[in-house]
Every structure is written in C-alpha cells, then in structure tokens.
C-alpha cells in the first residue's frame, strides 16, 4: 500500500514517486510514443489553439478542435495511438486503486511559455475511476480550485517524478497549470515539462 505525501483538496500528491532512473526510462518510452504519434497543437472551441502540445497512447486519445473535446480512436495523422507503455501501466496499478487499466494516456508537453487554464476532466464515462497524473521535467505550478468554477484556490509546485491522483470527491475539481519554471530540471534535453494523465474512458 502506498501513501500520498500530502493531500490538497482531495488531490493525493505522491512527491518523488519515480526515482531519477525511473524517470529517464519513462522518457525513453515516451520518445517512442511521440515518434509514432507526433505532438500536435489542438484547436479549441474558443478558436485559439492550446499552448500545450499533446499526443496520446492507448485505445483512445484525447482530441480537441473547433467542434469540441472528445476521445478519438486515432491520431490526427490517421495512425492508431501507440500502446500505453508498461512502465506507465505500472504506475497506475500502484496508485489508482482501480480494477480497470486506463485506456488513455494523454501526454501534454509544456514549452516554457505554455500553460493550461482551469478545467475539469469530465469527458470520461465513469467518474468512479480516478485520473492519475505524472510530472516529468521542469516544475509546474499546479492550481487546485473547487467543483464549481471560481472561488478560492490553492497552488503547489509539481516536480519531476511526482504523481497525483484525482479521485473520489475531487474527481471533478477544477485545476490547471499557471506556468512552468524553465530550467528547473535536467531530465529533458531542452527546457519544458511533460505531464501524463491516465484515464479510464468508456
Ligand atoms: C498538468 N494536469 O499537470 C495538468 N488532470 O500539466 C491535469 O490536468 C490533471 O494533474 C487530472 C488529474 C491530475 C492532473
Ligand atoms: Fe486535468
């Protein structure tokens, strides 16, 4: 049984869950995912592209364009999403407490200026499964709000190797990334941050 280092508004934070060696091995796996399914900049229903670039692994990939958000069975190029790496599935098995394996691993890449606005993760069919996130590379300032938009928030820095579980009463809590701290980690070849989110979709 693993225990979170701290819990922020129901988000369980496992600081330093992955050793530096485990982080490097994971980055090698993700390089292969990106080779097969290259990062792209999703459009949004609001007309502006997202500042993060993304891709996915698994049976479903998260996709956004002017018509809305959805899970898609293929990368925009038409190729099937690559399989979720075993090392990623192991993290889910260790922390999620879910009987099912995830069927989407969304990979977000934050270049130095990228951010992610406050959002809920609500495109999945069954909110009894948590969302598990893995941070790699530069530190990211994570903001946690409420189950309704607005109100007071709390922020914490997520560092390379940290794992967050968003489940239970926190499953529909608003959250986002205000900014990253370029150069705070040497894990990646260039400044930036990778965040993986694992979900059960259908
Ligand atoms: C990020 N994370 O850390 C954005 N979603 O870059 C998320 O949007 C997120 O950390 C669901 C559960 C945990 C998360
Ligand atoms: Fe999210």
Produce the secondary structure layout.
Blueprint: E1 6-8, E2 11-14, H1 20-36, E3 53-57, E4 61-65, E5 68-72, H2 86-95, E6 104-110, E7 116-119, E8 131-137, E9 139-144, E10 154-158, E11 163-166, E12 175-181, E13 193-199
Antiparallel strand pairs: 1-2, 2-11, 3-6, 4-5, 6-13, 7-12, 8-11, 8-13, 9-10, 9-12
Bound molecules: N-[(3-hydroxypyridin-2-yl)carbonyl]glycine and fe (iii) ion.
Brief characterization of the structure:
This protein has 202 residues and is mainly beta. It is 13% helix and 34% strand.
Structure report:
The protein is mainly beta. The two termini are 27 Å apart. It has two helices and 13 strands; from the N terminus they run E-E-H-E-E-E-H-E-E-E-E-E-E-E-E. The chain has one domain: Jelly Rolls (Sandwich). It has helices at residues 20-36, 86-95, and strands at 6-8, 11-14, 53-57, 61-65, 68-72, 104-110, 116-119, 131-137, 139-144, 154-158, 163-166, 175-181, 193-199. The mean pLDDT is 96. It is globular, with a radius of gyration of 16 Å. 13% of the residues lie in helices and 34% in strands. The structure holds N-[(3-hydroxypyridin-2-yl)carbonyl]glycine (MD6) and fe (iii) ion. Fe (iii) ion binds next to loops.
